[in-house]
Write a structure and sequence with these properties.
Length: 388
């Protein structure tokens, strides 16, 4: 698989990095060429400061972007998250009045707005409620701009803010309990890709073939933790099987879990446990690419102009977080998470024939979140708590 036609501004950067690399990649023909790891390639595609997918261009989610998130299916995802966070605050932090909610990787702010509006409606109904101050941590400049517009009223009132990662780092060291929401974030970390060939573990790399362009190749793994983790997890790969090991996401989780003294971690993403992700029927790994709402499996097409993702390993996240003294409260499908949070109570019986009526649209959004294309089963929710 290679890319011969759609060169982008990032292509020239990658070509020069490959030519200047001191690492060697091996093609199926046996030819050896300079190469970079797939991890580095994916990192540049997504986060190069000038040409990376999440650092340039327009907003990447919604109708004008390349994909939708659950926050774009009506208003319900944020509402149910607000309910769940309030329940966790009441159950585990009795007596605390003020909480910092951090929507890390919060994108254009749609999910955060939904949560804020749900909490605000409780105040209007004079229901008892804790004080939640919400911060979006987002490094995409265009997403930050859109998020500030989305949350303009809450920002003016001091109930919300939109920051970059540096400000987020300072926030998590505060005195108040910190609740981290990472909705469809972990899948966007650059990942290592490994493959078993002739009984040996190799790392997938990326090289440059003149006349062909960017091409996959095999490399000797240099990150020691890769083989250590595979061995410790007891993974037995099939000949020719490719897997992803997302050390970057786990390093971020480890850092976060080590810095927060009290709080909640809530991860929602598509993924599964180790046994399923590395099962024999998954011979090609889980890497997917998204462009113009089309999913495909060619990561070398239009570098920097398409999203690259891989499934989250929720066994690995649990291993990392629990070593930091956190307790896993719950893990399951997004569908069950939403049902547990009471979403079915928001269905309304009606005889309305107008498909655009708010009641009809709300019922349709609930069905879509719970049933559409099996996504509610593919997406998982994982909740951890630390009280001291």
């Amino acid at each position: 698989m290679n890319n011969t036609l759609s060169e982008t501004p990032l292509t020239a950067v990658l070509r020069e990095e490959i030519k200047g690399s001191n690492r060697i990649g091996r093609l199926d023909t046996g030819e050896e060429l300079s190469a970079i790891s797939f991890y580095h390639y994916m990192k540049q595609c997504l986060y190069h400061p000038e040409f990376g997918y999440y650092r340039s261009g327009n907003a990447r989610v919604g109708r004008e972007g390349d994909f939708y998130t659950s926050a774009y299916i009506g208003e319900l995802m944020g509402e149910q998250l607000a309910v769940e966070l309030a329940r966790l605050a009441e159950q585990w932090f009795t007596g605390e009045q003020a909480f910092d909610i951090v929507d890390w990787g919060g994108g254009t702010g749609r999910l955060s707005r939904q949560m804020l509006e749900e909490w605000e409606s409780w105040n209007e109904q004079k229901r008892p409620q804790q004080e939640f101050r919400l911060t979006i941590v987002e490094d995409n400049p265009e997403h930050r701009r859109v998020a500030r517009e989305e949350l303009a009223a809450a920002i003016i009132s001091g109930k919300a803010s939109v920051e970059g990662s540096e400000a987020g780092e300072k926030l998590i060291e505060g005195d108040r309990p910190v609740f981290i929401v990472a909705n469809e974030l972990l899948d966007a970390f650059p990942t290592y890709r490994l493959v078993l060939r002739s009984g040996k573990l190799w790392e997938w790399g990326v090289t440059w073939e003149e006349g062909k362009g960017l091409s996959p190749c095999l490399m000797e793994p240099v990150e020691r933790r890769l083989k250590v983790w595979v061995d410790d997890a007891g993974i037995e790969l099939q000949e020719g099987q490719t897997i992803e090991v997302n050390l970057a996401a786990m390093d971020w989780i480890n850092h976060l879990a080590g810095r927060i003294s009290r709080g909640v971690l809530l991860f929602i993403d598509y993924g599964d446990v180790t046994e399923e992700l590395f099962a024999p029927h998954r011979m090609d790994g889980t890497l997917l690419c998204y462009r113009n709402h089309r999913a495909h499996n060619n990561p070398y097409e239009a570098p920097g102009e398409q999203d690259l993702t891989s499934h989250v390993n929720f066994s690995h996240t649990r291993e990392v977080v629990e070593l930091r003294g956190w307790k896993q409260l719950w893990y399951g499908t997004q569908k069950q998470f939403l049902v547990n949070s009471g979403i079915l109570h928001k269905l309304s019986a009606h005889a309305i024939t107008d498909p655009f009526h708010p009641v009809v649209r709300r019922n349709r959004a609930i069905r879509q979140l719970l049933l559409s294309d099996g996504m509610s089963e593919l997406f998982k929710a994982q909740i951890f708590v630390k009280v001291e």
